[in-house]
Amino acid sequence: MEQLLQVNDLVTQFRTAEGNLSAVRGVSFSVNKGETLCVVGESGCGKSITSLSIMGLLPSNGAITGGSILFNDEELTTKTEDQLRRLRGNQISMIFQEPMTALNPVFTIGYQLREPLMIHRNMTKNEASRKAVELLEEVGIPDPVKKLKQFPHELSGGMRQRVMIAMALACKPSLLIADEPTTALDVTIQAEILDLIDDLKRDMDMGVVFVTHDMGVVAEIADRVMVMYAGEVVEIGNVEDIFNDPQHPYTKGLLASVPNIDEESKTFDAIPGTLPNLNEKIDGCRFHPRCPFATDKCREQSPPAFSVGETHQSKCWLQEVNNNVESANPS
Protein backbone atom coordinates (compact mmCIF):
# COMPACT_ATOMS: atom_id res chain seq x y z
CA MET A 1 0.00 0.00 0.00
CA GLU A 2 1.15 3.53 -0.77
CA GLN A 3 2.11 5.54 2.30
CA LEU A 4 0.26 8.83 2.65
CA LEU A 5 1.16 10.19 6.09
CA GLN A 6 4.24 9.55 8.24
CA VAL A 7 4.48 11.06 11.73
CA ASN A 8 7.83 10.65 13.50
CA ASP A 9 8.56 11.49 17.17
CA LEU A 10 5.94 14.27 17.26
CA VAL A 11 6.11 16.51 20.34
CA THR A 12 3.42 19.14 20.92
CA GLN A 13 3.63 21.52 23.86
CA PHE A 14 1.52 24.29 25.38
CA ARG A 15 2.85 27.47 26.98
CA THR A 16 1.32 27.95 30.43
CA ALA A 17 2.05 29.86 33.61
CA GLU A 18 3.70 26.68 34.89
CA GLY A 19 6.00 26.44 31.86
CA ASN A 20 5.83 24.38 28.67
CA LEU A 21 3.65 21.29 29.13
CA SER A 22 3.80 18.34 26.71
CA ALA A 23 0.43 17.06 25.47
CA VAL A 24 1.95 14.81 22.78
CA ARG A 25 5.20 13.00 23.61
CA GLY A 26 7.19 11.40 20.80
CA VAL A 27 4.25 10.01 18.83
CA SER A 28 5.04 8.03 15.66
CA PHE A 29 2.69 6.34 13.18
CA SER A 30 1.84 6.10 9.49
CA VAL A 31 -1.30 5.99 7.36
CA ASN A 32 -1.58 4.43 3.91
CA LYS A 33 -3.96 5.27 1.09
CA GLY A 34 -7.30 3.49 1.45
CA GLU A 35 -6.58 2.66 5.11
CA THR A 36 -8.42 3.59 8.31
CA LEU A 37 -6.26 4.11 11.39
CA CYS A 38 -8.33 4.39 14.57
CA VAL A 39 -6.75 6.36 17.43
CA VAL A 40 -8.20 5.33 20.79
CA GLY A 41 -7.77 6.20 24.44
CA GLU A 42 -9.43 8.09 27.29
CA SER A 43 -10.35 11.76 27.00
CA GLY A 44 -7.22 13.82 27.54
CA CYS A 45 -4.72 11.25 26.24
CA GLY A 46 -3.63 13.42 23.27
CA LYS A 47 -5.76 12.05 20.42
CA SER A 48 -7.29 15.35 19.34
CA ILE A 49 -4.08 17.35 19.86
CA THR A 50 -2.27 14.91 17.57
CA SER A 51 -4.95 15.51 14.92
CA LEU A 52 -4.82 19.30 15.32
CA SER A 53 -1.02 19.17 15.09
CA ILE A 54 -1.27 17.46 11.70
CA MET A 55 -3.81 20.05 10.52
CA GLY A 56 -1.77 22.99 11.83
CA LEU A 57 -4.77 24.13 13.88
CA LEU A 58 -3.28 24.28 17.37
CA PRO A 59 -4.42 27.01 19.78
CA SER A 60 -2.27 30.14 19.98
CA ASN A 61 -0.35 28.85 23.02
CA GLY A 62 0.35 25.46 21.39
CA ALA A 63 3.26 24.54 19.15
CA ILE A 64 5.01 21.54 17.63
CA THR A 65 8.42 21.52 19.32
CA GLY A 66 9.83 18.31 17.92
CA GLY A 67 9.45 15.61 15.32
CA SER A 68 8.29 15.42 11.75
CA ILE A 69 4.97 15.20 9.86
CA LEU A 70 5.36 14.03 6.27
CA PHE A 71 2.32 14.19 4.00
CA ASN A 72 2.91 12.90 0.48
CA ASP A 73 6.64 13.29 1.28
CA GLU A 74 6.16 16.98 2.12
CA GLU A 75 7.20 18.23 5.56
CA LEU A 76 4.24 19.98 7.19
CA THR A 77 5.96 21.29 10.33
CA THR A 78 8.02 23.81 8.32
CA LYS A 79 5.19 25.13 6.14
CA THR A 80 3.86 28.65 6.58
CA GLU A 81 0.27 29.33 7.63
CA ASP A 82 -0.57 30.32 4.05
CA GLN A 83 0.87 27.06 2.70
CA LEU A 84 -1.07 25.04 5.28
CA ARG A 85 -4.27 26.93 4.40
CA ARG A 86 -3.91 25.79 0.80
CA LEU A 87 -3.64 22.17 2.01
CA ARG A 88 -6.48 22.26 4.54
CA GLY A 89 -9.87 21.50 3.04
CA ASN A 90 -8.14 20.58 -0.19
CA GLN A 91 -5.70 17.68 0.27
CA ILE A 92 -6.28 17.21 4.01
CA SER A 93 -9.71 17.62 5.58
CA MET A 94 -11.10 17.26 9.09
CA ILE A 95 -14.51 16.41 10.53
CA PHE A 96 -14.92 17.87 14.00
CA GLN A 97 -16.71 16.33 16.96
CA GLU A 98 -19.40 18.99 17.32
CA PRO A 99 -20.65 20.50 14.03
CA MET A 100 -22.42 23.39 15.79
CA THR A 101 -19.04 24.74 16.86
CA ALA A 102 -17.40 24.02 13.48
CA LEU A 103 -20.16 25.43 11.24
CA ASN A 104 -20.57 29.21 11.17
CA PRO A 105 -24.04 30.01 12.55
CA VAL A 106 -24.44 33.24 10.55
CA PHE A 107 -23.87 31.73 7.09
CA THR A 108 -26.12 29.37 5.17
CA ILE A 109 -25.13 25.77 4.48
CA GLY A 110 -24.81 26.67 0.79
CA TYR A 111 -22.37 29.51 1.47
CA GLN A 112 -20.17 27.29 3.63
CA LEU A 113 -20.19 24.44 1.10
CA ARG A 114 -19.42 26.71 -1.84
CA GLU A 115 -16.47 28.43 -0.16
CA PRO A 116 -13.87 25.59 -0.38
CA LEU A 117 -14.94 24.80 -3.95
CA MET A 118 -14.49 28.41 -5.05
CA ILE A 119 -11.17 28.80 -3.20
CA HIS A 120 -9.50 25.46 -3.97
CA ARG A 121 -11.18 24.48 -7.25
CA ASN A 122 -11.63 27.96 -8.77
CA MET A 123 -15.31 27.30 -9.44
CA THR A 124 -17.81 30.06 -10.13
CA LYS A 125 -20.64 30.53 -7.66
CA ASN A 126 -23.10 28.71 -9.96
CA GLU A 127 -20.69 25.80 -10.51
CA ALA A 128 -20.04 25.55 -6.78
CA SER A 129 -23.79 25.60 -6.05
CA ARG A 130 -24.40 22.69 -8.43
CA LYS A 131 -21.51 20.76 -6.89
CA ALA A 132 -22.82 21.51 -3.39
CA VAL A 133 -26.17 19.93 -4.31
CA GLU A 134 -24.33 16.82 -5.56
CA LEU A 135 -22.30 16.63 -2.34
CA LEU A 136 -25.40 16.80 -0.14
CA GLU A 137 -26.99 14.05 -2.23
CA GLU A 138 -23.86 11.90 -1.83
CA VAL A 139 -24.04 12.13 1.96
CA GLY A 140 -27.74 11.23 1.98
CA ILE A 141 -29.36 14.60 2.74
CA PRO A 142 -32.90 14.84 1.33
CA ASP A 143 -34.09 17.95 -0.54
CA PRO A 144 -30.55 19.32 -0.91
CA VAL A 145 -31.58 22.49 -2.77
CA LYS A 146 -33.70 23.55 0.20
CA LYS A 147 -30.95 22.63 2.69
CA LEU A 148 -28.47 24.94 0.94
CA LYS A 149 -30.63 27.91 1.92
CA GLN A 150 -30.89 26.90 5.57
CA PHE A 151 -28.68 27.81 8.54
CA PRO A 152 -26.94 25.22 10.76
CA HIS A 153 -29.43 25.63 13.65
CA GLU A 154 -32.28 24.64 11.32
CA LEU A 155 -30.85 21.13 10.83
CA SER A 156 -30.79 18.14 13.16
CA GLY A 157 -27.54 16.88 14.67
CA GLY A 158 -27.29 14.05 12.15
CA MET A 159 -27.92 16.40 9.22
CA ARG A 160 -25.31 18.88 10.49
CA GLN A 161 -22.76 16.09 10.76
CA ARG A 162 -23.54 15.02 7.18
CA VAL A 163 -23.01 18.62 6.07
CA MET A 164 -19.62 18.57 7.83
CA ILE A 165 -18.70 15.40 5.96
CA ALA A 166 -19.82 16.94 2.66
CA MET A 167 -17.64 20.00 3.35
CA ALA A 168 -14.66 17.84 4.31
CA LEU A 169 -14.96 15.75 1.13
CA ALA A 170 -15.84 18.60 -1.24
CA CYS A 171 -12.36 18.79 -2.76
CA LYS A 172 -11.72 15.02 -2.68
CA PRO A 173 -8.91 15.06 -0.08
CA SER A 174 -6.26 12.36 0.11
CA LEU A 175 -6.43 12.31 3.92
CA LEU A 176 -9.48 12.66 6.16
CA ILE A 177 -9.15 13.20 9.90
CA ALA A 178 -12.35 12.50 11.82
CA ASP A 179 -12.29 13.61 15.45
CA GLU A 180 -15.04 11.64 17.23
CA PRO A 181 -17.59 12.58 14.55
CA THR A 182 -20.35 10.32 15.90
CA THR A 183 -20.08 10.93 19.66
CA ALA A 184 -23.15 13.20 19.96
CA LEU A 185 -25.35 11.12 17.64
CA ASP A 186 -27.81 8.34 18.45
CA VAL A 187 -26.77 4.81 17.51
CA THR A 188 -28.88 4.62 14.33
CA ILE A 189 -27.45 7.85 12.89
CA GLN A 190 -24.00 6.82 14.13
CA ALA A 191 -24.13 3.60 12.10
CA GLU A 192 -25.22 5.51 8.99
CA ILE A 193 -22.36 8.03 9.37
CA LEU A 194 -19.78 5.26 9.87
CA ASP A 195 -21.02 3.40 6.78
CA LEU A 196 -20.96 6.65 4.80
CA ILE A 197 -17.35 7.46 5.74
CA ASP A 198 -16.26 3.90 4.98
CA ASP A 199 -17.99 3.89 1.57
CA LEU A 200 -16.51 7.26 0.61
CA LYS A 201 -13.06 6.10 1.74
CA ARG A 202 -13.24 3.11 -0.60
CA ASP A 203 -14.61 5.17 -3.51
CA MET A 204 -11.90 7.84 -3.17
CA ASP A 205 -9.00 5.59 -2.00
CA MET A 206 -8.64 7.98 0.91
CA GLY A 207 -6.57 7.57 4.05
CA VAL A 208 -8.58 8.06 7.26
CA VAL A 209 -7.44 8.89 10.79
CA PHE A 210 -10.48 8.21 12.99
CA VAL A 211 -10.25 9.47 16.57
CA THR A 212 -12.61 7.76 19.02
CA HIS A 213 -12.96 6.32 22.51
CA ASP A 214 -15.60 3.81 21.40
CA MET A 215 -14.10 0.34 20.94
CA GLY A 216 -17.29 -0.80 19.18
CA VAL A 217 -16.69 1.78 16.46
CA VAL A 218 -13.08 0.65 16.22
CA ALA A 219 -14.08 -2.98 15.69
CA GLU A 220 -16.42 -1.93 12.89
CA ILE A 221 -14.24 0.38 10.77
CA ALA A 222 -10.55 0.06 11.67
CA ASP A 223 -7.79 -1.49 9.58
CA ARG A 224 -5.17 -0.60 12.19
CA VAL A 225 -5.46 0.71 15.75
CA MET A 226 -3.22 3.09 17.70
CA VAL A 227 -3.75 3.20 21.47
CA MET A 228 -2.67 6.42 23.21
CA TYR A 229 -2.13 7.10 26.89
CA ALA A 230 -0.95 10.38 28.49
CA GLY A 231 0.33 11.72 25.17
CA GLU A 232 2.19 8.56 24.13
CA VAL A 233 1.51 5.64 21.81
CA VAL A 234 1.43 2.56 24.04
CA GLU A 235 0.32 -0.01 21.46
CA ILE A 236 -0.25 -0.12 17.71
CA GLY A 237 -1.23 -2.95 15.41
CA ASN A 238 -3.78 -4.37 13.02
CA VAL A 239 -7.32 -4.42 14.36
CA GLU A 240 -7.13 -8.22 14.72
CA ASP A 241 -3.93 -7.87 16.80
CA ILE A 242 -5.47 -5.36 19.17
CA PHE A 243 -8.74 -7.20 19.76
CA ASN A 244 -7.50 -10.79 19.68
CA ASP A 245 -4.03 -10.41 21.19
CA PRO A 246 -3.73 -7.11 23.14
CA GLN A 247 -0.33 -6.78 24.81
CA HIS A 248 -0.31 -3.53 26.80
CA PRO A 249 -2.15 -3.53 30.16
CA TYR A 250 -3.87 -0.27 29.21
CA THR A 251 -5.24 -1.78 25.98
CA LYS A 252 -6.45 -4.80 27.94
CA GLY A 253 -8.11 -2.46 30.41
CA LEU A 254 -9.91 -0.54 27.66
CA LEU A 255 -11.24 -3.76 26.15
CA ALA A 256 -12.25 -5.17 29.55
CA SER A 257 -14.23 -2.01 30.36
CA VAL A 258 -16.55 -2.49 27.38
CA PRO A 259 -19.89 -4.02 28.52
CA ASN A 260 -20.63 -7.44 27.03
CA ILE A 261 -24.32 -8.03 26.32
CA ASP A 262 -23.72 -11.80 26.22
CA GLU A 263 -22.68 -11.90 29.88
CA GLU A 264 -25.21 -11.95 32.71
CA SER A 265 -22.98 -9.94 35.06
CA LYS A 266 -24.19 -6.39 35.64
CA THR A 267 -20.71 -5.13 36.47
CA PHE A 268 -17.72 -4.55 34.25
CA ASP A 269 -14.05 -3.90 34.88
CA ALA A 270 -12.78 -0.34 35.05
CA ILE A 271 -9.21 0.94 34.96
CA PRO A 272 -8.41 2.29 38.44
CA GLY A 273 -7.23 5.87 38.89
CA THR A 274 -7.20 8.73 36.39
CA LEU A 275 -4.98 10.14 33.67
CA PRO A 276 -2.05 12.19 34.99
CA ASN A 277 -2.11 15.97 34.57
CA LEU A 278 0.21 17.43 31.95
CA ASN A 279 2.32 19.04 34.68
CA GLU A 280 2.58 15.83 36.70
CA LYS A 281 6.10 14.42 36.67
CA ILE A 282 6.10 10.62 36.39
CA ASP A 283 9.30 8.59 36.28
CA GLY A 284 9.35 5.44 34.19
CA CYS A 285 6.22 4.26 32.37
CA ARG A 286 3.47 6.86 32.59
CA PHE A 287 0.85 4.14 33.09
CA HIS A 288 2.57 2.49 36.05
CA PRO A 289 0.51 4.28 38.79
CA ARG A 290 -2.62 2.57 37.39
CA CYS A 291 -1.06 -0.70 36.23
CA PRO A 292 -1.65 -3.91 38.24
CA PHE A 293 1.52 -5.44 36.77
CA ALA A 294 3.93 -2.55 37.52
CA THR A 295 7.42 -3.48 38.73
CA ASP A 296 10.29 -1.39 40.04
CA LYS A 297 11.68 -1.16 36.52
CA CYS A 298 8.34 0.25 35.31
CA ARG A 299 8.56 2.94 37.99
CA GLU A 300 12.13 3.89 37.09
CA GLN A 301 12.59 3.51 33.32
CA SER A 302 10.36 4.46 30.41
CA PRO A 303 9.94 1.40 28.14
CA PRO A 304 10.71 1.43 24.40
CA ALA A 305 8.26 0.14 21.80
CA PHE A 306 8.80 -3.64 21.61
CA SER A 307 7.90 -5.53 18.44
CA VAL A 308 5.30 -8.20 19.07
CA GLY A 309 5.04 -9.14 15.42
CA GLU A 310 5.53 -7.66 11.97
CA THR A 311 2.76 -5.10 12.42
CA HIS A 312 2.30 -5.06 16.19
CA GLN A 313 4.17 -3.01 18.82
CA SER A 314 3.68 -2.55 22.56
CA LYS A 315 5.41 -0.03 24.83
CA CYS A 316 5.60 -2.14 27.97
CA TRP A 317 8.38 -3.81 29.98
CA LEU A 318 6.25 -6.94 30.23
CA GLN A 319 6.99 -7.49 26.57
CA GLU A 320 10.72 -7.69 27.36
CA VAL A 321 9.93 -10.45 29.88
CA ASN A 322 7.80 -12.30 27.32
CA ASN A 323 10.54 -11.99 24.68
CA ASN A 324 13.13 -13.35 27.10
CA VAL A 325 10.89 -16.32 27.95
CA GLU A 326 10.41 -17.06 24.24
CA SER A 327 14.16 -16.81 23.63
CA ALA A 328 14.88 -19.18 26.52
CA ASN A 329 12.29 -21.67 25.25
CA PRO A 330 12.57 -21.71 21.46
CA SER A 331 9.96 -23.79 19.68
UniProtKB/TrEMBL annotation:
GO cellular component: a single term: plasma membrane
Membrane topology of this protein: Peripheral membrane protein
Biological process, per Gene Ontology: peptide transport
Molecular function terms from GO: ATP binding; ATP hydrolysis activity
Keywords: ATP-binding, Cell inner membrane, Cell membrane, Membrane, Nucleotide-binding, Translocase, Transport
Protein name: ABC transporter ATP-binding protein
Entry similarity comment: Belongs to the ABC transporter superfamily.
Sequence ranges assigned to domain ABC transporter in this UniProt record: 5-255
Gene3D superfamilies attached to this UniProt entry: P-loop containing nucleotide triphosphate hydrolases
Keyword match Disulfide bond: no
Pfam families: ABC_tran, oligo_HPY
Compartments, as annotated in UniProt: Cell membrane
Key word Cytoplasm present: no
